[in-house]
Amino acid sequence: MDKKVVLITGCSSGIGLSLAVRLASDPKKTYKVYATMRNLTKKERLLDCIKGLHQDTLDILQMDVTDRTSILNARDKIVEKRVDILVCNAGVGLMGPLEVQSMDVMRQILDVNLLGTIQTIQAFLPDMKAQGEGRILVTGSTGGLHGLPFNEVYCASKFAVEGACESLAVLLKHFNIHVSLIECGPVNTDFLINLQKAELGDTSLQNVDPQTLSLYEKFLQHCGSVFQNAAQDTEDIVKVFLDAIQSPSPAFRYFTSGFVPPLTELKLTHPDGLQYISAMSDHIFSDNEQQRP
Ligand SMILES: NC(=O)c1ccc[n+]([C@@H]2O[C@H](COP(=O)([O-])OP(=O)(O)OC[C@H]3O[C@@H](n4cnc5c(N)ncnc54)[C@H](OP(=O)(O)O)[C@@H]3O)[C@@H](O)[C@H]2O)c1
């Protein structure tokens, strides 16, 4: 049987790297993986993980999701001339008070997370439609389902990805192409190292009002403890990707922790949004530990 051809974006580290390694190591050699990354000088980490094995199931290609030429060049290098499973995973974070974010930085986040995802899909969509089947998986975030303070632009980008994917899914159903979002909470990756973050004491924060700075400090502490206590490993996320990839009728949304986060549910049970805003505010900013779920 022909191998399933998989292309994954953002494989220099984290979720993309782990997924590439897992699929390329499949004992039945079910997959041919094109692990892409924007900077090939970072490929050693992936090569270290596969230890010279899987030469027939893994290729590494350069692809910057913000650069259409680079996407098309990668597409042209696919030997099989088709992609069965496209994984749009590349993404970057941005954290800090909104008033200090420059247009350039905000554009970069939207360029990678939103337009990068969309233009990657655009490049492979006509062939998938012509094939009459395919899978598109996107690494989503609970930050694309509910708002988080000091993450306005990141959440905006991930909310927008939800809208783009849901819209596409309605259409692509008619082409036997399944779109799935893998909704991740905190995951132990390089994400926190790679994200663009305003540090307390940075000169960029000197004109920010004291109340915002004090809330930002609380948010950073909250974020640190969430990542320390509740972050999943990439292996947990990869299992969910595999569920979606192997399912004959995949869901549109998968939650990596197995259930819809309680605070996200509040948005459905109380659609005016006020319960969510109060609950999230208490969750992050309350000094009373008892109130934290
Ligand atoms: N970790 C979490 O807590 C978490 C939670 C929810 C959702 N997510 C999502 O998970 C996805 C993967 O993140 P991760 O946690 O694995 O973090 P990561 O280790 O920082 O990986 C992000 C990957 O995206 C790549 N990337 C960034 N800009 C790119 C571009 N222009 N073109 C191609 N690749 C680019 C990075 O490449 P470079 O090495 O070149 O920067 C890196 O390979 C992201 O979409 C993120 O939003 C993560």
Automatic annotation (TrEMBL):
Protein name: Uncharacterized protein
Binding-site positions, substrate: 141
PANTHER family (UniProt xref): 17-BETA-HYDROXYSTEROID DEHYDROGENASE TYPE 1, RETINOL DEHYDROGENASE-RELATED
Alphabetical UniProt keywords: Lipid metabolism, Oxidoreductase
Gene3D superfamilies attached to this UniProt entry: NAD(P)-binding Rossmann-like Domain (3.40.50.720)
Record keyword Lipid biosynthesis present: no
Pfam family, one: adh_short
Annotated NADP(+) binding sites: 10-38, 64, 158
The species this protein was found in: Sphaeramia orbicularis
